[in-house]
UniProtKB/TrEMBL annotation:
Transmembrane segments: 20-50, 62-80, 100-120, 132-149, 155-172, 193-212, 218-235, 242-261
Species per Swiss-Prot/TrEMBL record: Microbulbifer marinus
Taxonomic placement: Bacteria, Pseudomonadati, Pseudomonadota, Gammaproteobacteria, Cellvibrionales
Keywords in alphabetical order: Membrane, Transmembrane, Transmembrane helix
Domain CAAX prenyl protease 2/Lysostaphin resistance protein A-like as annotated: residue spans: 159-252
GO molecular function, a single term: endopeptidase activity
Annotated InterPro entries: Rce1/LyrA-like_dom (IPR003675)
Protein known as: CAAX prenyl protease 2/Lysostaphin resistance protein A-like domain-containing protein
GO biological process: CAAX-box protein maturation
Coiled coil stretches, renumbered: none
Length: 263
């Protein structure tokens, strides 16, 4: 069963009713260049690519998915000028080997800003029926991780700040890429075989986390989490639900489990 919060024509209809001030959002997003330099100029381009996806059909829409995905990848990977990480607080470390950094990737921040500016126009919302699915997508990876790694409870202001950054920057930008662009795009191309997007996107999710997941155990746990997020999207088609599930896993990981996972 899918959520009623997204149907194939839903985003298109939502945008058609809000054509007034179409160029206001991308023009305002150029202001991202002030704090983020050249990387900030990716924000209006990402917004426009998202708009094009929802307002075109056929090969033009497929090309728009490709353009948006490549632009997000280049931005997130720090390939644009001015993409250095920004540290807000000194990192949290302890004798148990935990190390949590309160900093953020400028590229992902730019992607997140563009995504939020765009998604607010669609007014997609969470529904009560989505919550059990989200809870399952959070608990399954956490139970698996706790069983393998054990627990490591901790609390510090740096962790609180890191958790906020994780929601606003990491989860929004990553779910925007993996779910709204990659998984939707693959589903659009596969038609009645759209369920194959779940393992395919899970594999991409795992591959792009190999720099963070430095051991077979870490990769296995990342795969479990990625599968849960992909399946959640397949079942509910709710962007904010996937963001919430992703953040739930990362939040509880930071506060309750060893972080990062030892290599």
């Amino acid at each position: 069963m899918r959520s009623e919060s997204l149907d194939p024509e839903g985003p298109y209809r939502a945008l058609q009713t809000r054509k007034a001030g179409l160029w206001a959002a991308p023009l305002l997003l150029t202001l991202c260049a002030i704090p983020f330099g050249w990387t900030g100029l990716a924000a209006p381009l990402i917004w426009l690519s998202l708009y094009t996806i929802e307002t075109t059909r056929g090969w033009k829409r497929g090309l728009s998915y490709l353009a948006a995905g490549l632009l997000m990848l280049v931005t997130a990977l720090g390939l644009l000028p001015g993409a250095a990480r920004i540290e807000l607080l000194p990192p949290y470390t302890d004798g148990a080997g935990n190390s949590i950094y309160a900093n953020f990737n400028v590229g992902k921040a730019v992607i997140a800003i563009a995504l939020v500016a765009f998604m607010l126009r669609l007014r997609q919302s969470l529904k009560a029926v989505d919550m059990p699915y989200i809870a399952a997508a959070v608990m399954i990876p956490l139970v698996c991780a706790a069983a393998v790694l054990g627990t490591s409870a901790k609390f510090a202001m740096a962790i609180v700040v890191a958790a906020a950054i994780n929601l606003l920057v990491v989860c929004v930008s990553e779910e925007g890429f993996f779910r709204w662009i990659l998984q939707r795009g693959v589903e659009n191309g596969l038609g009645r075989w759209r369920w194959l997007a779940v393992p395919l996107v899970t594999a991409v999710f795992t591959f792009l986390h190999t720099g963070w997941a430095a051991s077979a155990t870490a990769l296995a746990l990342v795969t479990v989490a990625g599968f849960c997020y992909s399946l959640l999207w397949c079942l509910r088609q709710n962007f904010w639900g996937c963001v919430l599930a992703h953040w739930g896993v990362n939040l509880l990981h930071m506060f309750l489990l060893p972080y990062p996972i030892a290599g």
